[in-house]
Design a protein that fits this description.
179 residues; alpha+beta; Alpha-Beta Plaits; 2 domains; 4-stranded antiparallel β-sheet; 7 helices; 8 strands
């Protein structure tokens, strides 16, 4: 069985509320095995033997039917998640000195070179950006709400994403994908 993590966009925001038990149940009804959740923000770990593109499409369709709204799914394999966790997009001294938390935006696909260049042009000392594969790494100098970085403009350039702290990625990797 292949092991995956699905990062779901827009869970438990606004009027949308779903418990981890309900989310686990939906994934089990969609044929996933060994389902676990991490925190209440749409991080679902599971096993399933199905090609990633087909699996993503089936999960999005099944969750939309069950919940009554679109749920973009950002699927990563065990190998991909371990690579994201191990990647050091910025010098450790910069990360340690920052008052902000290192963020990872999980993208649908690797951005074309022109889009990556356009996105990285928005990087400043206050909001450092790096791209590796299908991930945008963002190191804000302070809290996210204090940043002047235009996340909507970045999303227009790079496409839909969901964001997690690097700490969340590291915890999921350590707890569910360390083997």
């Amino acid at each position: 069985m292949s092991r995956y993590v699905a990062f779901l966009r827009g869970m438990n925001l606004g009027g949308r509320r779903i418990t981890n038990d309900e989310l686990r149940s939906h994934f089990e009804m969609l044929g996933c095995g060994a389902v676990a959740t991490f925190r209440a923000s749409g991080n679902v770990i599971f096993e399933k033997d199905e090609p990633p593109a087909e699996l993503t499409s089936r999960l999005e369709s099944g969750l939309a039917d069950a919940l009554g709204y679109e749920v973009p799914v950002f699927l990563r394999s065990a190998k991909e998640l371990r690579a994201i966790s191990a990647h050091e997009a910025f010098d450790a001294k910069l990360v340690d000195a920052s008052k902000g938390k290192l963020q990872v935006a999980l993208l649908v696909k690797k951005p074309p070179a022109a889009a990556a260049k356009q996105a990285l042009a928005k990087s400043t000392e206050a909001d450092r950006l790096a791209i590796e594969g299908r991930e945008l790494y963002w190191l804000p100098s302070g809290g996210i709400s204090e940043s002047v970085l235009d996340l909507n403009a970045l999303a227009v350039t790079l496409g839909t994403w969901t964001m997690r702290t690097k700490g969340t990625i590291d915890h999921v990797a350590a707890k569910h994908f360390s083997g």
